[in-house]
Specification:
The complex is a heterodimer. By secondary structure, chain A is an all-beta fold. Chain A is 0% helix and 50% strand. Chain A contains no helices and 11 strands. In chain A, a hairpin with a 3-residue loop joins β5 and β6. The N and C termini of chain A lie far apart (36 Å). By secondary structure, chain B is mainly β. Chain B is globular, with a radius of gyration of 13 Å. The N and C termini of chain B lie far apart (40 Å). In chain B, 40% of the residues are buried. The chains are: A mainly beta, B mainly beta.
């Protein structure tokens, strides 16, 4: 199985900051990575697919990059509604696997 | 508007069975792969199963193979997850998710159904 390792596990930031979350795959997965946002008690929301493509309706403050084994999610100009947990996921091969999550908290 | 609505969750004893349903609307259901993803209390996301548009292909995570069965009824635009021989570690919120038209990853999610396996 492909392991997805996210870092950091938690992150404190202020409104207006720019933050970057990293995800590393245990083997090469081309650009077959997605990113999701989840708020407490809510379903995940899809943000990015194919490493860098925004899902419909997702603001351009979210951006993704990477290929092979190393991927990043960057969120610019943080707003209160952006504080949530973020997950990466690989869909290069079965079983689909997720990173352990990064909890973004307000400083 | 795409909508996915799960139902059928609840409390079940270890070794018991439960069937989850997901009612889909707002899109042509038969065009899409569909999926179940779960989340144990306080834990991360875990993919459970996928099913092809016509039901001819199914994929499962190893921990549920032989116990869970994913199925669909395109005429009723519904997705199902039959869960047998349930274990305490199956306790989770189960999300129904649509896989995008490219057949790659999840684009829409339901609100989730809680399954609790306990005596």
């Amino acid at each position: 199985d492909i392991q997805m390792t996210q870092s950091p596990s938690s992150l404190s930031a202020s409104v207006g900051d720019r933050v970057t979350i990293t995800c590393r795959a245990s083997q090469g997965i081309s650009n077959h990575v997605a990113w999701f946002q989840q708020k407490p008690g809510k379903a995940p929301k899809s943000l990015i697919y194919a490493a860098s493509s925004l899902q419909s309706g997702v603001p351009s403050k979210f951006s993704g990059s990477g290929s092979g084994t190393d991927f990043t999610l960057t969120i610019s100009s943080l707003q209160p509604e952006d504080f949530a947990t973020y997950y990466c996921q690989q869909y290069n091969s079965y079983p689909f696997t997720f990173g352990q999550g990064t909890k973004l908290e307000i400083k | 508007e795409v909508q996915l609505m799960e139902s059928g969750g609840g409390l079940v004893q270890p070794g018991g069975s439960l069937r989850l349903s997901c009612a889909a609307s707002g899109f042509t259901f038969s065009w899409y792969w569909m999926s179940w993803v779960r989340q144990a209390p306080g834990k991360g996301l875990e993919w459970v199963a996928n099913i092809k548009q016509d039901g001819s292909e199914e994929r499962y995570v190893d921990s549920v193979k032989g116990r869970f069965t994913i199925s669909r009824d395109n005429a009723k635009t519904s997705l199902f997850l039959q869960m047998n021989s349930l274990r305490p570690e199956d306790t989770a919120v189960y999300y129904c998710a649509r896989i995008d038209i490219r057949g790659s990853t999840f684009d829409y999610w339901g609100q989730g159904a809680l399954v609790t396996v306990s005596s």
